[in-house]
Specification:
alpha/beta; six-stranded parallel sheet; 21% strand; Isochorismatase_domain; Isochorismatase-like_sf
Length: 177
C-alpha cells in the first residue's frame, strides 16, 4: 500500500518544546499543523507518542500541543530510537507519521534511526521546524533520500480518512479549513 494506512499508523510528535519554539522559523505554522495532526489522530483512533529532549533545559511540550492522552518519552539522545523505552512504545508493525523540531537534529536522527530499524516513516514537512529554513530543507532531502516519505498535513488527514463516507469526515475537514 502506498498511502498511509490508518490501521497501522502511529503519530510521533518530536520535541515541540517551550524554550525551543520561539527560535523556530515558521514555528507557529509547524505547531498549528502538529495540532491538526494530533486532533485528527484523536478523531480516527491513531495512537500518539510525544518526545521531549532534555526537558530541564528546553522545557515541556508547548501548551498548544500538550495533551494527557498520549505516551511521553523523555530523552537525552537526539535519536529517540537510542532511548531504551522508545522502540517498546512504537510497535514494529506501525507506520510512523512524524512531526517535530528541530528537523535537522532530533527529527532527522530519529527518522534515520527508525528507517535503520526497518520502520516505515512519513515525515510531515509542514509540521516540522528548524531555526533556519536551510537546515529544515536539507534535512527533508536527506530523510527522503534514505527512504522517508515526505507528506503534508492535508495528505495525512485525507489518507487517514480514506473516504468521504468516513463517519468523522466533517470533523476532519473542519480541522484543515
Amino acid at each position: 500500500m502506498l498511502t498511509i494506512d490508518p490501521r497501522r499508523s502511529l503519530l510521533l510528535i518530536v520535541d515541540f518544546q517551550s524554550r525551543l519554539m520561539p527560535a523556530i522559523d515558521q514555528g507557529t505554522t509547524a505547531v498549528r499543523n502538529a495540532r491538526r495532526l494530533i486532533d485528527m489522530a484523536g478523531l480516527v483512533d491513531i495512537p500518539t507518542v510525544f518526545t521531549e529532549q532534555n526537558a530541564k533545559g528546553l522545557g515541556a511540550t508547548v501548551a498548544e500541543l500538550a495533551t494527557t492522552e498520549v505516551r511521553l518519552i523523555h530523552k537525552m539522545t537526539f535519536d529517540a530510537v537510542r532511548e531504551r523505552e522508545f522502540l517498546g512504545a512504537v510497535p514494529p508493525d506501525r507506520h510512523l507519521v512524524v512531526a517535530g523540531c528541530e528537523a535537522h537534529v532530533c527529527v532527522q536522527q530519529t527518522v534515520l534511526g527508525l528507517i535503520d530499524a526497518g520502520r516505515k516513516v512519513y515525515v510531515v514537512r509542514d509540521a516540522l521546524g528548524s531555526r533556519r529554513a536551510e537546515d529544515k530543507e536539507t534535512a527533508i532531502r536527506r530523510m527522503e533520500r534514505h527512504g522517508a516519505e515526505i507528506v503534508t498535513t492535508e495528505m495525512v488527514v485525507f489518507e487517514w480518512l480514506e473516504t468521504a463516507a468516513h463517519p468523522r469526515f466533517r470533523e476532519a475537514i473542519a480541522l484543515i479549513k
